[in-house]
Amino acid sequence: MSHPPVTGPGDGTRAVHAGLPAPRPGKPALPGPVFAAHYHLPGDPADATYGYGRNANPTWTALETALAALESPDQEAHAVVFASGMAATSAVLFTQLRAGDTAVLPTDGYHGTSGLIPRLEAFGIRVTTVPTGGPRQYAALDGARLLWTESPSNPGLDVCDLAALADAAHAHGALLAVDNTLATPLGQRPLELGADFSMASGTKALSGHGDLLLGYVVTRDAQAAEALRGWRAAIGAIPGPMETWLAHRSLATLQLRVDRQASNALAVATALRARPEVTGLRHPGLPDDPAHALATRQMRRFGCVVSFTLPDRDTAERFLAALRIVDNATSFGGVRSTAERRARWGGDDVPEGFIRLSVGIEDAADLVADLTAALDHATG
User: Which of the chain's termini has less CB crowding within 10 Å, N or C?
Assistant: First the structure.
């Protein structure tokens, strides 16, 4: 009997063990958070691994080791954790761009990233914005220093060909940075597809419990990673040790959560497809979704977010108010399902009735029943 070749641990095994120290008798599998503003520091500070709490912390090191292993299991990479996803985003943009450079940002991505445009321009950086996917991303690369993209995008769930974008960016002398928040490293690995930076908000599915703020960047470029660490220390965008430890603890259940969320999201999307009041339904896992073929080629899991549009603002508000299991809240990726009328923030180019639904780990049948009853109520 032949056996398949050994290719290393699976996603679940890797997530459970990533970043843990070697087993030692009487010691915990995951050491507790280290609370320290300073460390004993005799002699030359350059010889010390830890000297001051704004520069390094053992709890950061453990999580960074784990994240590098998840985002780039087969090649050395460097992870840097931050106080939030926006801190991580800002670090990439402001360490890699200088006055006179051009950055290409998405028109349909996270509105917090778009909020950085005036700040980039204030430093003399030119910003071009293009929609996710399609030829305009490639056309904008001429003269660009960095292309920032999300795939799938938030909240529209468009998908772009990351390998092709990486090749095109590098051919133009540009860098590719990918916001991997929605997919997670168990859904796709941008660095393996050629990206220079994989960034994510650890607030979302990575930690998954809606109880912390965190961000991170992973790169295979050691100099770029050192620049990120220097930026983090200089502006103080450091994560708390407790938040960092909680995020690392949560990795052990990452595969269980994202698998359950993905299957629930597909079940919910399938049920919503039958509703006449629902238009613009998107989820990369749906066979008829415009992004499905590409997502199937580059993603291993399709994520927890489903987006759709109801006829108008009032219908959407009645729908959200009628939900009993699904919370009316922002963010996504948590174990508890949430939904919101995204246009209320004013930063996304979406219809007034546009709903972003983050599917949690509840029973799929209960979620479908809750959504169906709320739609019945909203449409009277």
Answer: N
Residues marked active site are found at: 54, 110, 179, 204
Task: Answer yes or no: is pLDDT of 1 > 60.
Answer: no
Chain segment 219-242, per-residue pLDDT in tens: 999 999 999 999 999 999 999 999
SS (H, E, C) the chain: CCCCCCCCCCHHHHHHHCCCCCCCCCCCCCCCCCCCCECCCCCCHHHCCCCECCCCCHHHHHHHHHHHHHHCCCCCCEEEEECCHHHHHHHHHHHHCCCCCEEEEECCCCHHHHCCHHHHHHCCCEEEEECCCCHHHHHCCCCCCEEEEECCCCCCCCCCCHHHHHHHHHHCCCEEEEECCCCCCCCCCHHHHCCCEEEEECCCCCCCCCCCCCEEEEECCHHHHHHHHHHHHHHCCCCCHHHHHHHHHHHHHHHHHHHHHHHHHHHHHHHHCCCCCCEEEECCCCCCCCCHHHHHHHCCCCCCEEEEECCCHHHHHHHHHHCCCCEECCCCCCCCCEEEEHHHHCCCCCCCCEEEEECCCCCHHHHHHHHHHHHHHHHC
Residue 69's pLDDT band, with cuts at 50, 70 and 90, is very high
Q: Is residue 6 part of a domain?
A: no
Rounded to two decimals, the pTM is 0.95
CATH of the domain at 134: 3.40.640.10
Shared-domain flag, residues 193 and 66: yes
